[in-house]
Specification:
This protein is mainly alpha-helical. Helices cover 40% and strands 10% of the residues. Strand 3 and strand 4 form a beta hairpin. The termini are far apart. It holds the Pfam family zf-C2H2_4.
Length: 125
């Protein structure tokens, strides 16, 4: 069985500033450092170039999986402030939070109807 590939199907590392494509990531990193000197921070994982250190550091959380920002209400963790902020809006909009399944409910009635589901799950036969 032979497999054929077309150039169009391949994904090449692409410069997020000018759209240039490269065969390997190292060439993209070199390109960003040389051609886009106003974008001195280049990600070693994907080649994304940033002008500011703060946005570069935020981008790095995506690769590291680190989530240093923790929700004080439910304990969920996030890598970026805006994601935590959006999450906190949900707590405010839907204040009834189920610790068991991490669902939110707008009304107390809805939340009370939901609770027995977890009681049934805990019954051992």
């Amino acid at each position: 069985m032979s497999t054929s590939y077309t150039w169009e199907a391949l994904k090449f590392p692409t410069c997020n500033v000018c759209g240039s494509e490269f065969l390997i990531l190292d060439l993209l990193i070199d390109h960003c450092k040389e051609q886009h000197k106003n974008m001195p921070y280049v990600c070693e994982h994907c080649g994304r170039a940033d002008k500011y250190l703060s946005s570069f550091k935020r981008h790095q959380f995506m690769h590291s999986g680190e989530r240093p920002l923790v929700c004080e209400v439910c304990g969920d963790a996030f890598g970026q402030k805006h994601t935590l902020k959006n999450h906190m809006k949900r707590h405010a909009e839907e204040p009834h939070y189920c610790e068991e399944c991490k669902n939110y409910f707008k009304s107390e009635e809805e939340f009370e109807r939901h609770k027995p589901i977890h009681a049934k799950e805990k019954v051992v036969v």
